Amino acid sequence: MNQSAVTTSPLSDGVRKALEVSLRGVEELLPQDEWAKKLARSESTGKPLRIKLGLDPTAPDIHIGHTVVLNKMRQLQDLGHQVIFLIGDFTTLIGDPSGRNSTRPPLTPEQIKFNAETYYAQAAKVLDPARTEIRYNSEWCDALGARGMIQLSAKYTVARMMERNDFHQRFTDGSSISLHEFLYPLLQGYDSVALKSDLELGGTDQKFNLLMGRHLQQEYGQEPQCVLTMPLLVGLDGVDKMSKSKNNYIGITEDANTMFAKVLSISDTLMWDWYTLLSFRSLDEIAALKAEVAAGRNPKDAKVALAKEITARFHSAAAADAAEQDFINRSKGGVPDDIPDVALSGAPLGIGALLKQANLAPSTSEANRLIDGGGVRVDGGVVSDKGLKLEAGTYVVQVGKRKFARVALG
């Protein structure tokens, strides 16, 4: 993105710095000149800008890909602005059609309530809870009623709605589009009216909905919000966006050891994108670190620093240190300090059955596959015999690099 001067009047150092923070890692900031003017006005009046992020509680937990926008919120929060964490409990009843090629099945009110209860607790690991306004869009959407919904629908045309890529594609393909799906972008836009938002954040797939907020604010006589979109975080595989369905994700509720190890598994190239989008280090610090690696420093040092930062954010600095030590122990073939104790009976017990009963393999057939691949160790020795039977005693059993159990077999 072009980050050149965006207003005819000179910007103060404070506004220039705020603009630089705003632009870090973003896909688009629209319109950039309006945002600079809002920042300048905020600086001169001392009145914080209102920055909105809406999330529909479609699932009970989130992964670090979701935190890319939360990180941006935190950066703007640290500049002194008011951030609004909006839980779309009403819009979730509709189901966001963004990027979908079929009607999305809506969740029940019970599912939405369950998911919403955990959403903010997880987001608070990134945002400062003391400086975050939490709202639910059922506050104003329920109050609209049938009359208000008709009046809102009159403020946008079907022709413009059909310009939206996913609606246009589905119509062209002959796929069904339900009328209630047209309400989703209208209601998301109306959220910006209700909250008098100055800036709304979202992923690149939300651009149409975010611009709807600008349109509706103008319709209701408000100054239109600016729109900031963030790129979708590439997952562990370095190819696709982070997604649970692709199993290339890091859940923010995962244990510290797993989180640390997963960050270390990403490629050296992907690491720098993650630094820009996930780290709270300044761009100057990241550039200096990148220059050191280019000059010969081991890139693993930079990756360890990133893994510790991310792990500490969702756990603690002490947990991040312990996760680093655990990773070192595993890489040297050592046994972690904290492994589960499992008591089993039936000695002598076949190794396949033992792995299954100790929850180290989902089935005996999978256990046999792991043995064939050389992925099973007992007391440090690789198991190659699928017919092995263990007598009564205590064994440290390892599967792969990360699964351990201390098995007391009787």
UniProtKB/TrEMBL annotation:
<dbReference type="Pfam" id="PF01479">
    <property type="entry name" value="S4"/>
</dbReference>
<keyword id="KW-0648">Protein biosynthesis</keyword>
<keyword id="KW-0547">Nucleotide-binding</keyword>
<protein>
    <recommendedName>
        <fullName>Tyrosine--tRNA ligase</fullName>
        <ecNumber>6.1.1.1</ecNumber>
    </recommendedName>
</protein>
<keyword id="KW-0067">ATP-binding</keyword>
<dbReference type="InterPro" id="IPR002305">
    <property type="entry name" value="aa-tRNA-synth_Ic"/>
</dbReference>
<dbReference type="InterPro" id="IPR024088">
    <property type="entry name" value="Tyr-tRNA-ligase_bac-type"/>
</dbReference>
<comment type="function">
    <text>Catalyzes the attachment of tyrosine to tRNA(Tyr) in a two-step reaction: tyrosine is first activated by ATP to form Tyr-AMP and then transferred to the acceptor end of tRNA(Tyr).</text>
</comment>
<keyword id="KW-0694">RNA-binding</keyword>
<feature type="short sequence motif" description="'KMSKS' region">
    <location>
        <begin position="241"/>
        <end position="245"/>
    </location>
</feature>
<dbReference type="Pfam" id="PF00579">
    <property type="entry name" value="tRNA-synt_1b"/>
</dbReference>
<keyword id="KW-0030">Aminoacyl-tRNA synthetase</keyword>
<feature type="short sequence motif" description="'HIGH' region">
    <location>
        <begin position="57"/>
        <end position="66"/>
    </location>
</feature>
<dbReference type="GO" id="GO:0006437">
    <property type="term" value="P:tyrosyl-tRNA aminoacylation"/>
</dbReference>
<comment type="similarity">
    <text>Belongs to the class-I aminoacyl-tRNA synthetase family. TyrS type 2 subfamily.</text>
</comment>
<dbReference type="InterPro" id="IPR036986">
    <property type="entry name" value="S4_RNA-bd_sf"/>
</dbReference>
<feature type="domain" description="RNA-binding S4">
    <location>
        <begin position="349"/>
        <end position="410"/>
    </location>
</feature>
<feature type="binding site">
    <location>
        <position position="244"/>
    </location>
    <ligand>
        <name>ATP</name>
    </ligand>
</feature>
<keyword id="KW-0963">Cytoplasm</keyword>
<dbReference type="GO" id="GO:0003723">
    <property type="term" value="F:RNA binding"/>
</dbReference>
<dbReference type="GO" id="GO:0005829">
    <property type="term" value="C:cytosol"/>
</dbReference>
<dbReference type="InterPro" id="IPR002942">
    <property type="entry name" value="S4_RNA-bd"/>
</dbReference>
<dbReference type="InterPro" id="IPR001412">
    <property type="entry name" value="aa-tRNA-synth_I_CS"/>
</dbReference>
<comment type="subunit">
    <text>Homodimer.</text>
</comment>
<dbReference type="InterPro" id="IPR014729">
    <property type="entry name" value="Rossmann-like_a/b/a_fold"/>
</dbReference>
<keyword id="KW-0436">Ligase</keyword>
<dbReference type="GO" id="GO:0005524">
    <property type="term" value="F:ATP binding"/>
</dbReference>
<dbReference type="GO" id="GO:0004831">
    <property type="term" value="F:tyrosine-tRNA ligase activity"/>
</dbReference>
<dbReference type="InterPro" id="IPR024108">
    <property type="entry name" value="Tyr-tRNA-ligase_bac_2"/>
</dbReference>
<dbReference type="InterPro" id="IPR002307">
    <property type="entry name" value="Tyr-tRNA-ligase"/>
</dbReference>
